[in-house]
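Pasting as-is:
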Amino acid sequence: MGRRFLEKAGYGCVEADSIEAALEALRTTPVVAAILDVRLPGAHSGLDMLVAFREIEEFRTIPILIMTGSLLTEIEQATITKHRAVLFYKPEGFSTIVGFLDQLTGRDRSH
């Protein structure tokens, strides 16, 4: 996702290239939401990361946005629904995503 765009909108970003690295980063960094790509290089997917997040008490309720540029299977869609994430299809506009993220996190950008 557009790290520069998110930072310009006032969000700090933590990036990780594996589930283990993401979970470690989340243990040491305050997080208000997560944006995960369904398709990741390697053996795990963003949906594997979603499931891993939801298994940890402090991450059970944070807003999670799932990004994908491809069609999802019924099982993938069910996983997203079961774990209370919101699906966005690429190339959804970054301003739409930031606006939705603002709503989920309660940020007031009217000032």
